[in-house]
Design goal:
Layout lengths: L1 E5 L6 H9 L16 E7 L2 E7 L11 H11 L5 E7 L3 H12 L5 E6 L1 H6 L3 E2 L1 H8 L3 E3 L8 H13 L11 H13 L8 H9 L3 H6 L4 H18 L3 H20 E2 L7 H10 L5 H42 L5 H19 L2 H17 L1 H8 L1 H6 L6 H10 L1 H7 L6 H10 L9 H11 L4 H26 L20 H34 L11 H9 L12 H9 L5 H14 L8 H7 L4 H13 L4 H11 L1 H27 L1
Parallel strand pairs: 1-3, 1-4, 4-5, 5-7
Antiparallel strand pairs: 2-3, 6-8
Helix pairs in contact: 3-11, 5-11, 7-8, 7-10, 13-14, 13-15, 13-22, 14-23, 14-26, 15-23, 16-18, 18-19, 19-29, 20-22, 21-22, 21-28, 23-26, 24-25, 25-26, 28-30, 29-30
The protein binds guanosine-5'-diphosphate and magnesium ion.
Guanosine-5'-diphosphate binds next to α1 and α4.
Length: 661
Amino acid sequence: MEIAFVGNPNTGKTALINSIAGSDLEVGNWSGVTVEKKEVTLKYQNENIHLVDLPGTYTLSPYSIEEKVTRSVICADDIDGIINVVNSTDLRRNLYLTFELIDLQKPMVLALNMFDEFKKRGYDIDTDKLSKLLDMQVIPTIASKGLGKKEIISKIYENIKNNKISKPFVYQDHIEKEIKFLMNKMKDVECNIKRFVAVKLLENDDFALNKLKDYPSILEEAKQARIRLSNHFGMDVKKFIVEYRYQKIDEILEQVLKAPIVDKVILSDRLDNILLNKYLGIPLFFVIMFLVFQLTFSGSQPLVDWTNWFFQDFLGHKLEVLLSSYPHWVSSLVVDGIIAGVGLVLSFLPLLAFLYFFMAILQESGYMARISFLLDKLASKIGLKGNGFISLILGFGCNVPAIYSTRSMGTFRERIILALMIPFMSCSARFPIYVLFTSLFFTSYKALIILSLYMLGIFIAFFIAFIANKFLPKNEIKPFFLELPTYHIPTTKAIWNLMWPNIKDFLYRAGSIIVLASVILWGIINLPPKSTPDTSYLAQVSKEITPIFKPLGFGEHWEVVAPLISGTLAKEIVISSMGTIYGVESNKDSSLTLQQKIHSAFPNSKAAFAYLVFILLYIPCVSTMAAIKSEFGWKLMILEVTILPIIAYIVSFIVYQVLSL
Ligand code: GDP
Ligand code: MG
């Protein structure tokens, strides 16, 4: 049994599925989080029920790719029932989709979600009456707290079992007559959503036209019907149908909805008066980001110190003692290779946990969604729309999902511009490198220095986009709705649900690719046999390249250049590689700590900063490249892989030279 969860973006579809099935699909309050169809299996009444999560959509006559995913899934035969999740605080807009869904004539229930917000704002609704008018069960739910989940699933299950289908929504007489007429013409067509297709034929919708492409006579009948109707109404049929639906919605809401005399959304609006203020909005955004870095830094510091001690001093020494009865290379591999490399990366876990925590708060509270609003004007200058910034913000977490998220961001042209910008967003793998270096080389203004790296990335991204926008062939920009969720206080559970996948992913990578890279690197440093690190193949090759970086200030020590190469696999590997290289080297000189050694590889803090700039820009990791390739093809990937190192070199050079003045 397949049950689809359908609704506008941000109505809580994913949250409802999670609360029903106890799953952990990603919840988020901006559109674009659920790009593809996702499925969760629930055992119910000894049956396997598939709960299908879909991208949000406002209509079944969609524009964007992700909305099309939704339509094609729910129009397919294997969907047995629909749970229409609506935001009860925005019923007029949400019920539009409900009316379209009713045309599908499949078992359905309506979840009035966000019922807590609804009550909080002082609204009231007569659910019995609404249920009668729509001929369908209407159930208030609070997905984030699991309220109403049992009833939802049991009602839809019953409806599917009894094949209970709501009475169709009745259109205006003439329209209704033509619908019947077309459905009758489709008698012999294999299709079990005939009413829906008939309505869409009248709307002259691609989907319906395409569905009946093998039946030219019906298409011709439909065309005649459209002509009859538009002559009768004196207006476009689709327009008439759309307006008719809204008119009916208004009639229904008139009967069932009691709006408060004073809307309690006022608080949210007051906040927006400040946070979205024409002059204050953007500066406040930077202040908030600065606070996030500052709090991340100072909050995690003690924990980072502890994990650092744990991996470097405690675990390293314990293992060294433990392995002392084995040949020397075993303990060298484990302690100098793996622990030094992976441990160094892992010691930043508390730092990232803090970052993810604050990001989750920004996202859950509803602030993130506002950033696209703030930057909408700016966006139009580079051929984008405000919602494109959602992809860019996702890029601060990880560039890979950011690349995939561009799918829901409109035209191919806009997507290409975004794909060119995303690699400049400082992902959370770059963050520990920034932190390691700023704590080594700078005594004050650390958060500001890190913020400046983020800003530099953003600035260059805009610059590139600006150029791309000039040269890419122009096409029309589709209008987009900007829907701002009301602010709410995030629940701990929702925050955890956002943090955990990121933490899991970080640990997974530390345990897989970073261990592997550390082992391989350890192997290479010890080749040829009997060499010292300084005479190893790795050192020989790296020493060839190292002088290239002299103008950037870090062309003296191969130990910090080699990690740039391995770091193309994943940026954390820059750190683990330094750990491994210096770990092995420490055999000959252990008077210095790892941090001190890194410190000694740079002539001054300007060179260290130039190094960070280079790392920010020089190349996206292989996973990002793969994502770009799969979404946009070879050409764009190769373009990015060539221009990025060049940009990195030039910018890093300028930064170093300017700082040295
Ligand atoms: P989707 O886009 O429809 O999948 O929406 P999500 O499930 O991602 O939820 C969007 C946001 O609304 C998240 O921040 C949820 O935590 C929040 N949310 C979901 N259901 C409710 C609810 O009933 N009440 C409140 N206050 N928030 C909710
Ligand atoms: Mg979702």
